[in-house]
Amino acid sequence: MIFQTGAALLECCVLAVLDREDTYGYVLTQRVKGVLQISESTLYPVLRRLQKEASLSTYDRAFQGRNRRYYSITPQGREKLQQYRTEWEAYKNRIDDILLRGLCGDE
After folding, report:
1. Residue 105 lies in a domain
2. Which of 31, 37, 54, 87 is deepest in the core (most CB within 10 A)?
3. Torsion angle (degrees, nearest 10) of CA 81, 22, 27, 53
């Protein structure tokens, strides 16, 4: 993808994945990588930031003798996701206006 991935877009995608179900880091990375070119090293600081902001919580679950850290969206995270979705819709519409319809903001 030639477009830059900003922090807000990455946060939005992480929250959207977790809004469907709790999951652990590897699966979360794979799902986000399905739409954005990111690495695990890019994702984990985002997860820590969202957790620090109380948008995510974590819990551990045993798997084959090891613990997996699962991430879960919180009510605050759902509010933040809704704000992102609202902003994304407005942004997408403005971009569609110029790319698809050739309109400018003052028309």
Report:
1. no
2. 31
3. 50
Structural domains of the chain, count: 1
pLDDT per residue, tens digit, the chain (107 aa), is: 566 678 899 999 999 999 999 999 999 999 999 888 888 888 999 999 999 999 999 999 999 999 999 999 999 999 999 999 999 999 999 999 998 888 776 55
Query: Contact 71/58 with Cβ under 8 angstroms?
Result: yes
Q: Are 67 and 76 in contact (CB under 8 A)?
A: no
Global pTM value: 0.86
- CB-based contact 6:91 (threshold 8 Å): no
Its sign, for the CA torsion 14, 16, 19, 24, is negative
In a domain, 80, yes or no: yes
User: In this structure, are residues 103 and 97 in contact, taking their beta carbons and an 8 Å threshold?
Assistant: yes
Where residue 58 sits, what CATH number does that domain have? 1.10.10.10
